[in-house]
Amino acid sequence: MLFKVLIVFVNACAVFALPRLQYNTEPPFKFYSRSDWQALPSIGTTLLQTPVPYIVIHHTYIPSACDNHEKCSAAMQSMQNYHMRDLKVGFCIGSSGDVYEGRGWETKGIHAGPANSVSVGICLIGDWRVQQPPQEMLESAKALIQLGVTKGYIKPDYKLVGHNQVMATECPGKALSNIISNWEHFSESFNELSDNEVITLDFPFVRREEWHARPPKKTLPLLVPVPYVVIHHSYSPRACMDSYRCEEAMRSMQDFHMDTRGWWDIGYNFGVGGDGSAYEGRGWTTLGAHSLRFNNVSLGICLIGDWSNELPPPQQLKTAKALISAGVQLGYIKSNYKLVGHRQVRDTECPGDALFEEIKSWQNYSPFPAKVTDLLDVEEIPESIRKDWKDRGVLNASVPL
Ligand SMILES: [Zn+2]
Ligand SMILES: [Zn+2]
Q1: Is residue 190 part of a domain?
Q2: In what residue span(s) does the Peptidoglycan recognition protein family domain sit (predicted)?
């Protein structure tokens, strides 16, 4: 509560702060630096090699459009707070044409998968699927790009694309897509693939909104940082190799968990697709429903597919590991966490024989607990709960688990 009050106070102060123009060439828009909108320091930044050959245009979808400093700062803060502790893009623009610094010109963003290392991402705050962005916003976007060229951060012969030309997504919305297709430098396609994509915090991360998740029926908080990470496979749906099918897989798991199983939401905290993207399930701080009796002390990550006889593709394994390191760096997973397969905490074949053999070689793999009855001796589970299980005999093999 105190925290909320403090945030409101900080926002109120920000209204009176004068925008600082950081550039020598004065741009034709109000520019708010990170400190102007009270950004948190960013974590794990990577230098972007400039000048970049691409500009990628986004909309936010959520948060919705904002037309003053207070609302736009709040939008920036909410986007920053969302998981990765930093903006995905270089800059965002509000409805009145004010520009807000995200990662800026020289830091690599996490906004468009394969285009991250060769582009600056610019987001127009709002949902521009049907509605057209205001003229001021569009003019500022163009002026910002021009400024980037003048300052040497963007190649003079740059190509401009919408997010949906790089990855399977609705972003930046149909209305905005139509508009930018008439802009100078618009390119029909993106084709500059970079092969040094994935580093620690750098993998495509697909939010719930982006895969069109249903809202949860109810949520409970997860006490973080968690001491355990549990690896699952989906078995069904089978492997997905592009974002269209992976998003569909996330939706089908969510439907199955909510409608057939009667759970509040998709059970897993995250899904990881064969396309190398991490998909937000319940997320970092919401209690999952993936490992009965173990949910309270763990995050559940599901590698979409049936990994009984074959291994997930390299990019899927890589992203699963990168997601775990991101969780550690962001403070959601204990640094001395233990990694286990679902079968170690419940009678199940999950995560499949092949994947289970694979994770035994991963960092922090723990052979204990080896089977569900070991849960009685897992010290991270409160003594009172374990005593209750012992008294009621719930972990006895004769009782269905
Ligand atoms: Zn986008
Ligand atoms: Zn499982």
Answers
A1: no
A2: 29-167, 203-346
Count structural domains, the chain: 2
Host domain of residue 276:
205-392
pTM above 0.90, yes or no: no
Ligand nearest, relative to CA of residue 267:
2
Question: Do 210 and 173 share a structural domain?
Answer: no
Q: Which residues pair with 286 in a beta bridge?
A: 221
Distant-in-sequence, close-in-space partners of 91: CB < 8 Å, separation ≥ 6: 99, 100, 101, 102, 104, 120, 121, 122, 123, 144
Query: Using one digit for the tens of pLDDT, what is the confidence trace for 193-225?
Result: 433 333 335 789 898 988 999 999 999 988 888
Secondary structure of residue 333 in the 3-state scheme: strand
- Ligand 2 centre and the CA of 305: distance in Å? 11
Distance CA 351, CA 337 (A): 19
For residue 231, the ligand closest to its alpha carbon is 2
Residue ranges with CB less than 5 Å from ion ligand 1:
58, 163, 171
Q: Contact, 176 vs 133, CB < 8 A?
A: yes
As a whole number of angstroms, the distance between CA 315 and CA 321 comes to 10
CATH for 323: 3.40.80.10
221 shares a domain with 165: no
